Amino acid sequence: MLKNSLLSTFLKFSSLSRVQNELFFENPYEKLKQYLEVPLLEEQFFLPDTESLVAAQELFLPNPLHRIGFITSGIGSEKFPDHDIPEVVFMGKSNAGKSSLLKAIFTNVPNLRIQTSKRPGHTKTAKFYQVGSKLCLVDMPGYGFRQPEWFENLVHEYFKRNNCVRTFLLIDGKVGFEDIDQIALDVLESYKVPHVIVMTKIDQASDSTLLKHILQLRNIKKSIVYCFSQPFMVSSHTYEGLGHLLAFIGHITGNIDVKSADIKPISS
């Protein structure tokens, strides 16, 4: 847990106009480690220091020289933006909490509305959100058990691009990893797309449930190649774990130099 005095010092000298809940800076793994006598994961954690967490928050704070907002949406490559900035993709089943997570990420961006369909599972386009000239977040439609042909075509068209540096596969923390998520994972593996699993809604699940689902993901990780070793855990309601996720995004897009000695080189 971060020392309050250290956190206050960094926030005092940062350019943040708003400070989110302190849980933004917390590592959700800390509260789970107390239940086990062995490491929760075999690999080392991504452990950004306080300065990196503050930089992550600043990265998603707009200013006149750092515009954050919606760019465009489309289902075919002709509708995708023509730029060379790195992109990160968010994917998940229709009720995995993707829209809520995006709203939490952009909570400090006035008037930015995360576009959603009134009928879950009926969004048909990829949506692109600009974070200045630093990176672009791509919101893929939610997937379901009987995926229509247009979704398969959209995924195929998108991953032919060279912009994507990482795809985040969202898993409902209350439910855990399901068969439909395995299909999505197989698709990412088939395209050799570097990806990360993000467990959402952790504020709505008990510690024992989260522990069970993290251990489940540890077993799944043994059979895949292109998935980052550590799942992230976040709450879109309390912001718990959000700082670590945003620091990771900032790091892999080349915008934040994470100095933690505990981090492994990111190569997959």
Automatic annotation (TrEMBL):
The alphabetized UniProt keywords are: GTP-binding, Magnesium, Metal-binding, Nucleotide-binding
What is any one of the record's Gene Ontology cellular component terms?
mitochondrion
Q: Which GO terms describe its molecular function?
A: GTP binding; metal ion binding
Check the record and name the SUPFAM superfamilies matching this protein: P-loop containing nucleoside triphosphate hydrolases
Domain EngB-type G stretches? 84-255
Q: InterPro entries, from UniProt?
A: EngB_GTPase, G_ENGB_dom, GTP-bd, P-loop_NTPase
Q: Which Pfam families match?
A: MMR_HSR1
Write down the PANTHER family for this protein, in alphabetical order. GTP-BINDING PROTEIN 8 (PTHR46498)
UniProt name for this protein: EngB-type G domain-containing protein
